[in-house]
């Protein structure tokens, strides 16, 4: 989230009205519900993790053991099994 100066985006009368309630403090203004982004959409991490999980599943289908996958991807065996279960449901 990036901070913006109120005087750069709001009219002076709106700033004065807000100052009646919140003078000199940081104020978070939430997004409208119809413009909210899902987790990971801004940073792209969601796509990265989905690709990693498909890669794990593909390697598992090729015969790589859960233990070896855990070592390769620095995850627990439990996490690898969870990813495999989830990927199986997608197919």
From TrEMBL:
Keywords, comma-separated and alphabetical: Plasmid
InterPro entries documented for this protein: c-mor_Regulatory_Protein, Homeodomain-like_sf, YraL-like
Record's protein name: Mor transcription activator domain-containing protein
């Amino acid at each position: 989230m990036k901070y913006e100066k109120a005087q750069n985006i709001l009219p002076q009368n709106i700033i004065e009205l807000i100052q009646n309630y919140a003078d000199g403090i940081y104020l978070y203004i939430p997004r409208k519900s119809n413009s909210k982004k899902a987790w990971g959409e801004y940073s792209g991490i969601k796509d990265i993790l989905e690709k990693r999980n498909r890669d794990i599943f593909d390697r598992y289908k090729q015969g790589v053991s859960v233990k070896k996958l855990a070592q390769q991807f620095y995850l627990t065996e439990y996490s690898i099994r969870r990813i495999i279960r989830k990927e199986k449901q997608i197919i």
